[in-house]
Amino acid sequence: MRIADVHRSSAVLAVAAVFLVMTCFAAAQEVRPGSGKDLRPTGKHQGVAEANAPSAREINEPNDAPPSRDANRLRPRTNGISWHGGPVMHGTVPIYFIWYGNWANNTATSLLPTLISDLNGSSYEHINTTYYDSTAHVAGAMALQGQANDNYSQGTSLSDASIETIVANHCQALGGCDSSGIYFVLTSEDVDETSGFCTQYCGWHTDGTISGKDIKYAFVGNAARCLSACAEQSTSPNNNAGADAMASIIAHESEEAISDPDLNAWYDSRGNENADKCAWTFGNMSTASNGSLYNFTGASGTRWLIQRNWVNASGGYCAMSY
Ligand SMILES: [Zn+2]
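^ inputs. structure came back:
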């Protein structure tokens, strides 16, 4: 099943949206389809739908109109995703990691920073340059600008509000609460995010007002907590299945945060953001000597298995490079 299901426009959702819009606001990386129970791959929770609910205007787009004799003449060329007027993130996007909980002796702390430098300027990240706003196109560049550790300040059972609190507690020391960056809260294996980590989603991104600024942030938990739901494979390219799975989620969430930072820029008529349209698809894969699969080798020489992203060109398609 596809995550799109939860975003599917319907009268019920449209009505529900009115009531949910105040409290639910994130866009999520759903759990792996077919894993564990027959979990419906959903957005983080039902509220996701309303955050990205198609507007009346979008529902009435020619794309959604029944075919007619004049369809070819009336229908504008589209790439399966459209701009809704909001900003994208420009230039080299600063990334901040907040390592929450216990990450001692976990190679994730070296792997995931390497991921950011590997994504930066890559042909994979170049896919995101097909997204733009009234000012400029996405640059396809990112750089890790700061990291912090948080020793369980909010305990081991976190809520969505806890995640924002963690960001708020650290962002001043990390770029002065940088509204042009993305703050990732990365939680250790023993930490839960009770709104649905491992059951409804593997990660999510959103924005919130912190210190009077619009701060973009994301949650990505250690997939080692639930490899069957949040990892594509249990033997991974860098011999750390949890961290390697997080890499895929981080790639996904960063692409979405950059092309749809305030949840009002790029998404399709079902509310799917760019990476959602290619979630849990990997294209051509190679097999490493330890038997794991990978589909991307970064400038560092590190191998990764990361989800494809949606190219906003040539009619739209999932790809690993552009
Ligand atoms: Zn997503």
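The first helix runs from residue 4 to 7. The chain has one domain: 83-319.
thumbs up if we can close this ticket
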